[in-house]
Every structure is written in structure tokens, then in C-alpha cells.
Amino acid sequence: MRKSWKVISVLLVVAFVSMMLAACSNDASGSGVSVGIVLPTKDEPRWVQDEQRFKDALSDSDYTTEILFSQGSSAKEKENVETLLNKGIEVLIIAPHDGAAAGSAVEAAKKEGVTVIAYDRLITETDAVDYYVTFDSIAVGAAQGQFLINNSEGSNVPLYLYAGASSDNNAFLFFEGAWSVLQPKIADGTFVIANSSEAEALQDKAELTRDEMSRILGQVTTNWDPNEAKNKAQTHLTAVGGELKGDVAILAPNDGTARAIADVFATDSEVTSYVVTGQDAEKASVQYIIDGKQSMTVFKDVRTLVKDAMGMAIDVLDGNTPATTGAYDNGSIEVKAKQTDVIVVEQTNVKSELIDSGYYEADEFTGL
Ligand code: BGC
After folding, report:
1. Regarding the domain delimited by 137-300+345-364, which CATH topology (the fold level of the hierarchy) does it fall under?
2. What integer is the mean pLDDT of 180-189?
């Protein structure tokens, strides 16, 4: 009798300890979240697209993930990272709202031993970033600039410059790429800058410093906000005389701002034609391109970026070292990076690149 009690109590202890261990291991995987994903805002189709592509890619994966949006606020972003840390994530994939302000959020993650992957936008001025997955952003800007060159005729073509938010490192890369091809064409009189005295003052410089670009961005930033883009375009067209209208070229940094700017230029009776750039291949802009209201977009295949980011995350979870193709200086360290190419889309190839490739469905558009 005594003996059997002993056996039962030992069994009870073993059962209790194994229950405790099971509970702990559940907790360690943070109610199951191994990869946390933080995106900048739901207010732009670009990032909703990324969310969808992450969901598509993860639908039959064994890894548990959670996606949170920061709604254009660095404070909310930090809160999101903390929420994910509390759930026990091992890898953080993050596209920062503000590249420098995100430093403290990723430093908190690093302290917990989490691997940090910057997604599309670099996090700057911190050593708490392990990897960066990105498109070739200089090539995006260069493609936009080259498109304006290829589609403008004659000389003294008024050139309207617009840029992204200064808090986003990409805004500088896009502008740098565009300037590298446009500057020689400004210097040789093909284009005349219409809306930035700072850019005019620098028009003989082939390469601009970050500070010089900041001065130009200070005048022509859209802050990635279509409303701000619209207001600026209206102000610019009101300020100029007829000699800066007629057939014009417009460097618009992305699709959301391109549509807003294009709508303003389209309603000015002294603007006879405009060529306007974009990027992201947002559905609304694809329709604008089909309708001849936006001239081009730079297609960045988000499926590839998602695949690269998740591939890296899985490598890390499996204890392997992710493959990279280069590095980006973030002002503090060289961040190992994997970079993806981009594709220029205009009316002539919109169907082959975006529909035939299976990126979008034909019935999402009219007049294809
Ligand atoms: C992204 C663009 C996007 C822009 C505004 C950039 O960092 O690379 O694709 O249009 O932010 O959200």
C-alpha cells in the first residue's frame, strides 16, 4: 500500500512538472508568434498590398506570424514592437514609418535577442539592424528620370520635381537616382526647373550631398501624402507664368502622389500635356495608365520582397545564416542586404507585366 502511494505521488510530480514545462514552452514561443511584421500604414494601398502578399505567402506555412500597422506614428510603431516582443517573437520584419525614429524600437528588440530585418525602408543611425531586404531604390529614381527624358521633346521643357518624405531614407535614394539622369539634361537646356529654387541653385552639380538633397526635399516633399502633393501642385501652378506651362514633365515619387499631382495638372487649361512618373503599380494607378492619365509606374514585385524577407526569417529560425547580395550604410553600420530589381510599366506593357504575369486579374480594370 505504502509503495503504491509513493509511485502515485512520483507520477503526480512528474505529470505536474511536464505540464509546467509544456506551459513554459508555449509561452516561450509567445502564444505561438515566431515572426513579427510591422508595416507603416494602412492608409496607402502599397502597404495593404504587402500585408496581402505576406498573408498569401504564409497561408500554408508552419511559422506563426502577426502583422501590425503603425498608422504613420513612430510611437505606435514602438508599441507594436513591444506587443510582438511580449508574444515572444524571434524575428522582427519592419518597414519603419520614420527610419531614424525607429532606432529605439529595434534596439528594444535586439536587447531581447530578436533578429531585426528592415523591410523596404532602411532603419538609420543604429547598429540594431541585422538585415535589409529592399528593391533597388536608386534604380527606381533613375527609371523615373529616364522616362521623363525619353518622353519629352525639344528644349526648355518645364520640369516639376516632387519627392517623398525626408524621414524615409528611400526618398533620398529615389531623388538621387532621378537627379543622376536628369541633371545633365537640365544642364544642357532640355529641361528647366519650374518649382524649386534650391534645385535651380544646384543644377550644375552632378552629385548632391545628403544636405543638398535635404534642401530640395524641403521645398518639394509630398511627405508621401497625396493631399500635400495636390496642394503643392496647385501652389506651384498658381505661382508660375505661361512659359512654365505648355508641355511639361513631372517627377512624382510614387503612385499615390502621382495621381494627386496629375489631377491638378490635368485641370490647368494652360498645361497642354504632361508626362508624370510613379511607382508601386497600385491598382488605381494601373487604371490611370490604361486611361492615359498617368504615364508610367515602377513595378516593384512585392511577392519577391515578401519571399526574401520570410526566407531570411526562416533561415534565422532554423539557425542558418541568410544569403545577402550587398550592404547598405545606415549611418552607423553596413547592413547586409538583399536587393531586388524593378520594372518600368507604361501603357504598352501594362498587360504583359501586370496581368499576364498573374500579379493582378484582368477584371480588376476597365479598357485593357
Ligand atoms: C516605398 C514606396 C512607397 C513610399 C510611400 C517608400 O519607402 O519604397 O514604395 O510608395 O514609401 O509609402
Report:
1. Rossmann fold (3.40.50)
2. 98
Q: How remote is the CA of residue 83 from the centroid of ligand 1, in Å?
A: 25
pLDDT tens, residue by residue, 13-38: 444 444 443 333 333 444 579 999 99
Instruction: Give the three-class secondary structure for 12.
Output: helix
Determine the distance from the C-alpha atom of residue 72 to the mean position of all C-alpha atoms in its chain, rounded to a whole number. Answer: 13
Mutate to test the pocket of ligand 1, among 162, 169, 224, 297 (most ligand atoms within 8 A of CB): 224
Distance 301 CA to ligand 1 centre (A): 13
**Distance from residue 278's CA to the centre of ligand 1 (Å):** 11
What pLDDT was estimated at residue 24?
36
Domain 32-129+302-340: CATH class, spelled out: alpha beta
Q: Return residue ranges of the chain for CATH 3.40.50.2300.
A: 32-129+302-340, 137-300+345-364
Q: What would the mean pLDDT of 125-129 be, rounded to a whole number?
A: 98
Ligand 1: atom nearest CA of 140 is 8
Cβ-based burial of 97 (10 A; exposed 0-12, middle 13-18, buried ≥19)? buried
CB atoms closer than 10 angstroms to residue 44: 20
